[in-house]
TrEMBL record:
InterPro entries: Citrate_utilization_prot_B, NarG-like_sf. This is Citrate/tricarballylate utilization protein. Coiled coil: none annotated. It comes from Paracoccus homiensis. The chain crosses the membrane at residues 103-121, 141-164, 216-238, 253-271, 283-307, 313-334. Keywords: Membrane, Transmembrane, Transmembrane helix.
């Protein structure tokens, strides 16, 4: 808890200086929200932190960074608060702290462990079945992945409720939520204050690369989710069971979605190697990179599995793919994936404040 208070206090100190300076007015959603306040409560700082997209343009434009005595590094100050707010509101909280300390090792061990379990489960393969169901029964996959998908959503809902209370959120309005979805879909805050892009990977150059890679991840993930959902509808509503041909809704959504997801995650991992780690959350670089690579592995193994259909490679690709997917689901409330839900909540709250619902 003391660390949480220290992060809040430092972010408050820097925000007060920024509020007096106002040179970065209009850079992104953070600064209109910051300049609207006269004083900053803990909830205000938490809200600002989750509005921040860490584009870093304000840092490179700032005249008060080190070696100036003010020593401003607002991107890092807000990143520390943002990272800590996810842990503070995560439920159960103990898991969040374990992942924060051992995220890379935990991810690797879970993938290996689940992969071994799925490989052994093939010894109980059904007497009949087509495609993947020739290796693992449909009932077994449903029994494993249904709770693995629904329980993380429940924990995220509990976490977001705590966040909403902390930032003083009132009654949720559809218009505010719809506006937040529009901003998130456009990645507007990654365009920079004047639409030239952000400075994430290079202080002297504006770039839209990070926004484009984020969009590839977002829309690739949504397409993959839609592919799985459409397969569920075809199976249970229309009685059409997998495997599906390429000219089918699950494949027409899933294959392009997987490709987009691979491109987006690989691009974000590449950008992280070029960016200054001192402008992000302290000690979070490894865990964030592990999560990006996990999401890449989910999409890459899925595409490889589809390409290997009908070959002997399915027997080891299927356990590997299912292990990455299961690990991704279980770690979602405690990994960087949670930031999407908190960012959406922060944008929704900001829309309400702009409307005058303080």
């Amino acid at each position: 808890m003391q660390m949480h208070i220290d992060f809040i206090a430092e972010a408050r100190r820097q925000s007060e200086i920024c509020n007096a300076c106002r040179y970065c007015e209009g850079y992104c959603s953070v600064f209109p929200a910051l300049h609207r306040e006269r004083a900053f409560s803990d909830g205000d700082i938490t809200q600002l932190a989750n509005l921040c997209h860490n584009c870093r343009g304000c840092y490179y434009a700032c005249q008060y960074t080190a070696p100036h005595e003010f020593d401003l590094n607002l991107p890092q100050a807000l990143a520390n608060v943002r990272q800590d707010s996810w842990k503070a509101h995560a439920w159960p909280a103990r898991f969040a702290h374990v992942f924060d300390r051992n995220g890379v090792a935990m991810t690797g061990l879970l993938v290996l462990g689940f992969g071994l379990i799925f490989a052994l489960a093939q010894g109980m393969r059904p007497a009949s079945g087509e495609g993947f169901y020739a290796y693992l029964s449909h009932g077994l996959m449903v029994a494993i992945f249904s709770p693995a998908f629904l329980l993380p959503l429940l924990t995220i809902a509990i976490s977001l409720r705590g966040y909403w209370t902390t930032v003083g959120g009132g009654r949720l309005r559809w218009t505010d939520l719809r506006g937040a979805f529009a901003l998130a879909g456009q990645m507007k805050n990654l365009k920079g204050g004047h639409g030239d892009g952000c400075n994430f990977e290079d202080e002297d150059r504006f770039s839209h690369a990070r926004r484009h890679f984020h969009q590839a991840v977002l829309y690739g993930f949504l397409m993959c989710f839609a592919a799985t959902s459409s397969g569920t509808v075809l199976h249970y509503v229309f009685g059409l069971e997998a495997p599906y041909s390429f000219v089918s809704i699950p494949k027409l959504l899933g294959v392009p979605g997987g490709i987009l997801l691979c491109i987006g995650t690989a691009g974000l991992a590449w950008l992280k190697t070029k960016a200054d780690p001192e402008l992000g959350a302290s000690g979070a670089w490894g865990g964030e990179m592990a999560f990006v690579l996990l999401l890449f592995s989910v999409s890459a193994t899925g595409l490889a599995l589809y390409a290997a259909t009908g070959s002997g490679a399915v027997s080891w690709l299927l356990p590997l793919h299912l292990a990455t997917v299961l690990t991704f689901f279980l770690l979602t409330p405690y990994s960087k994936m949670a930031h999407g839900f908190y960012r959406l909540a922060a944008l929704t709250r900001e829309n309400a404040k702009q409307r005058g619902d303080a």
